Amino acid sequence: MSNPSRRGALKLTAGMALTGAFALTGCGRGDETAAAKATSAPVDDSPATGTVTVWAAQGDADVLDKVIKPFKAANPDATVKITLIPNGEYYTKLQSAVAAGKGPDLAQFFPESQSQFLDPSILRPVPDGLVDKSSFFGSLWDAGVVKDVAYTVPWYAYTYALVYRADLAKKAGVRAPTTWAETVPFFKALQGVGAVRGLGADIGWDVFNGQDVAMYAWQAGGSLLSPAGKWTLDTPAMVDALQYNASFFTSRAADTSGPTFLDAQPYFVSGKTATMITGPWVIGQLDAAAKKDGWTAAHVATAPLPAGASGSNSFSAGGSWGVLAGSSNADASWKLVRYLTKPDTQVAQYKAYSSLPAVISAWDDPAIADQPLLDAFLTQLKNTRAFPQVNTWQQVATRLGKEMEAVAKGTESAAKAAANVQSYADSLGTGAK
After folding, report:
1. pTM listed for this prediction
2. 417: closest CA among 217, 209, 234, 207?
3. I need a labelling partner for 298 at 20 to 30 A (CA). Which of 55, 275, 352, 405 fits?
4. Each residue's pLDDT tens digit, 386-412
């Protein structure tokens, strides 16, 4: 199973001034003239021809050349040249190439952190009729849309769910929590039967923690942006979200000093922790962490996230594709994108790298449908939202992560943290003109 967390890439993005590409191209989202001119010709069913240059981040794209062999066979006059770039360098290199006018034809993006690229000066709009947007998880499609224009097409999907030690839950006589009120008692019950900590919490206190508190705010009935595009972070829902996250630590169900990200799975396997709030990639990695085939099937279960006052929302994430505005072979590039989103291709990508499909119907294939530990992720993907499609979201999320640390460690109130984040976000704005 892949690990698409991309901590390095997202940290770089969050720490950068994300206006570089826009400033150099001279076009922003408020440039209605450029937006009006941004068109992509319809894509027919004739064979693709010419060369398509593709840039992608190392990880799920490592098997891309293998997955597209049928496309190459069906389009013998097309050449696909794939360049894989380390995660931690990917967006930096892509932004520099875009600004210099030397980008590829087709580039991979990440729905949770692609907003700075969603502009007609950078990406071509998705041609009408290329794909059926209703075939994808809705929030993944929405993550590529700005002002009713779609710029990216989803490729693979992930979200967060609850992964827990089923053997310990059985021993404790408890079921997975379905509400916030049940969550800490569930963690404590697993501690009562041998786990050192009930939850192996993420303690990076970074952009990823900010994503966590955003989904908790949604669960509490909040939003991150108003309909008018203003930040709405200093709200009762955000305070509730920060307090909910802090309760994991103040109850001593989780520890503010560990595990680190790389230690999460060894801790879970050894019983130092009993649950993780994490993505589906861990399912395919736990046998290796336990050094025993079949360990996962015998010890692990999954469940959707516990619901707050307004439900069990999580966030949508994964991979997507976009054709650059300067592409010299947009027609063949879109034909490759269309191929990559066919259900059979989505299943082939899963078999090659365990990338979970962004196309809903592909989940019906036995290769995926017969994996019971993935059921919770499918349920959760149907109840997700896209992060704000504004240039400064990664910076705001990073600040949220830092404020979460202060609340979890008891050095700041949740109300103060929410006010601090609101003030910071207001000072940044959204990057829109």
Report:
1. 0.90
2. 234
3. 352
4. 999 898 999 999 999 999 999 999 999
